[in-house]
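Re: weekly structure request thread

Next one in the queue (164 aa):
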Amino acid sequence: MGTQHASIIRGLSIATTVIAALCTMILLVVLAAFGLGGVVLSNPDMRDQASYELDVDPEDVQSLEDLGIPAGDDAAFAGFVLGAGGALAGAEVVCHVVALIAGILGICNARRPEKLTMLLVWTIIAALASVVARNFILVILLVITGVLIFMDRRAASLSGGQTA
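Done, posted below.
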């Protein structure tokens, strides 16, 4: 026994899984690059070689000093940028892993009417996580998948759990 849209849900879940896995791998490479940049900045010799003159507007200098970054310390500014970028990339990795889990669950459970409620919950959570990660392709895939899961769940409840 399957559900009415099981093959479409499975196909969309495969696409979700592939896209989320690719994004996760790319973001892990970005995190490694941020980490390498942090290692370079922690070495005083490399810091001096990588240092450059930062041309900023006087108003920007004031806002940098408000953040605790001295205007003349280019390495501190670069460290702040690397830290903020690393934090954002780390949050996006977590969001894409949630979408990856939802995709895998969709592949495994698309034909099982008793698992549709759990699958719908994971799809909604993954769609919200994809909005946070700003991956609107995943958002669209997950919303379409969620609508189809909702339709199959409703049809399964109306027919007592047995759908064509």
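Residues 6-42 form the longest helix (37 residues). DSSP finds six helices and no strands in the chain.
Next request, please.
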